[in-house]
Request: fold
Amino acid sequence: MQAEQNQRLTRYGIWLAIGLAGFVYGLLSATYEFFPFKALQSVHQTFANKPAKIDSTITFRDIGEGFWHVARHSENETLDKQKSDALAKLASLPYLRGSKSAKDVENVTLYSKGLAADGLNLFVSGHGPEAHLIDMEGRLRHKWRYAFEDVWSEPLPFDEWRLHQTFWRRAHLYPNGDLLAVFEGIGLIKLDAQSNLLWAYQGRNHHDLFVAESGTIFTLTRQWRKQHPSIIFEERFLEDFITQVSPDGKALKSVSILDCFLNSEYASVLINMKRKGDVFHTNTLEIMDGRLGAAYPMFAKGNALISIPTMQLIAVIDLQQETVVWAMTGMWIFQHQPTLLDNGHIMLFDNLGDGGKSKVIEIDPLTQEVVWLYRGTKENEFFSQTCSSNQRLANGNTLITESNTGRAFEVTPDKEIVWEFLNPFRAGKNNELVASLFDLVRFDKRMFAGQEWMSEKSEMK
Reply:
């Protein structure tokens, strides 16, 4: 009898231990989001009758140069107003005018003639709504500028950071001196060589644009959505689109990036997608010219290469069929600027994937082999938490924009630095910060041969 009681207690103890272990594992899974958290979350979001509520006590407010903080709402704020404020700022944190201390040195600090690829450099910066074209020695050759309030004087019909009205995030230069510029999350403008406004398009354009040989402009746009027919979202979300704009600024067609994934064999990657706010934060757009389509079918003419940093994902979209035809992840963290090289490889700026630091990586998209990479050293640190870009030059060198530090530099295939530029413009209340260098692009000087709009060499002002 005693033996039977002992056996019964032993069984109870075992089941109690199993139950306790399951409870602890479930608690840890919910806290640290490891298996099977995401799978169960996905099932719940798919079959739930209504989406879950967000924390209704959080609001976001602008401070200083665009830094942000989270604050509890005051008792006299209504719930609807508070939720609206929170959702508006969930779109994405603002790009800062500057975040790093300025150094004493500025402009071109290194130029190895004969090793660096000769050309002209176009850059946009957090200091203001303007673009500068400089030569290899840092002398100004031309400048474009147009203030936000001179384009759109009325209040915006949507929520966007006020800070993004104060500078251009990206620019594209035409041989005749015309310039396209992006006010982040707001719109696209086109200027002539004398900075006269030719047209403006307010489509919530953001991050990047690409001009095809036909003159059609491809740009990233976004819209708030309350719901989607195939996926349950917790709250409103931003849906990213690839939008085609005519050379005279008229919208032609928009393709939903989210729907392209759902229409493809890559739909399963969406299990890692957020369910509210800026779910993709697409930051790069490059249209294929077809030169590599025979060897790499996914790079057929007209297909679009994009970057989705929130999912550590790059992908190629067939814009005609509106479907994803290739995707890759796992080798970078919060990446920017994937670009197709002439050898069929892809190069991109990996912001956080080198042990918390940055690297530029070139891969074979078929074998996933790392063909070339550049990372910093103790003597020459290399890191930008946000933005940044890379460009393979005609002589085989690589031009790298390290946005947060306001730095651009050119390296040889052997990783020798042969040109360096430090942004001379400043930000901060007392000009104590170097202005963020959002992008710097090298052009062959022959592109502008004989153009009257090119100014004589002068000091940068």
